[in-house]
Amino acid sequence: MRLRRIKGIEEKIKEYSDVIVFDAATLKGKWCEKFQNNNPIYLEIGMGKGNFIIKSATLNPNINYIGCEISDSVAYIASKKIRGINNIYVINQDATLLDSVFCEKEISKLYLNFSDPWPKKKHEKRRLTSKSFLDLYKKLLGSGGEIELKSDNRHFFEYSVMMFNQEDFEILELSLDLHSDKSDIVTTEYEDKFTSLNQPIYYVKVRIK
């Protein structure tokens, strides 16, 4: 269920300018300066309310994390929890414009957690694993860069695996029931809900050749 837009969000979100980067395009190629270190940068597209990125950043203090969220209301909610964690920034950004925010090879790893499956064929280009998006990721990540994808939607997962193969990504790991195959998993809000209902989580990890 999509969150309703918070009343007065345009002003409320400005209170978190220490977490949300509003002038993200000015940092293209300069994100290490923003973080004040040369640690690898991991990007989550569609960060939701922030559970996954917060847990990841807490467990990995030597990794820099950026959460991309198109909904300003959701970015606001996540930022309230992120404040005080010094290796996370948030960008309130449409994913189609990420090449205006990051230069080539500026990102080391990308997470796609429970992306909108856009099931209708006419909406294929909106899927975050369509060819246009994969071409974008190749630029941001460069050779050796990795993508991790989790989904509860079997059709979207199969489509994504097909596209990774078609676009010459190397598949490193694949699971049709992640929580049966692995332990110590950093989860998202959706993931916790689905696993509580005994719904399998589909997972694939790929690398750019």
Tell me what you see in this structure.
The chain has 209 residues and is α/β, with parallel strands linked by helices. The protein has a single domain, classed as Rossmann fold. It is built from eight helices and seven strands, in the order ααβαβαββαβαβααβ. A seven-stranded mixed sheet has the order 3-2-1-4-5-7-6, sandwiched between helices. β2 (64-68), α4 and β3 form a beta-alpha-beta unit. The chain is globular and about 40 Å long. The mean pLDDT is 94.
Under CATH, the topology is which? Rossmann fold
Described by the principal axes of the CA atoms, the overall outline is: globular
Please tell me the overall pLDDT.
94
CATH class: Alpha Beta
The profile of the biggest β sheet is: 7 strands, mixed
- Which second-level CATH architecture applies? 3-Layer(aba) Sandwich
Head-to-tail CA distance between termini? 37 Å
Question: Which structural class should the secondary elements be placed in?
Answer: alpha/beta
Strand content: 15-25%
Number of strands: 7
How do the strands line up in the largest sheet? 3-2-1-4-5-7-6
CA radius of gyration is 16 Å
Helix tally equals 8
Unreliable residue runs: none
Following the backbone from N to C, one meets helices and strands in this order, namely HHEHEHEEHEHEHHE
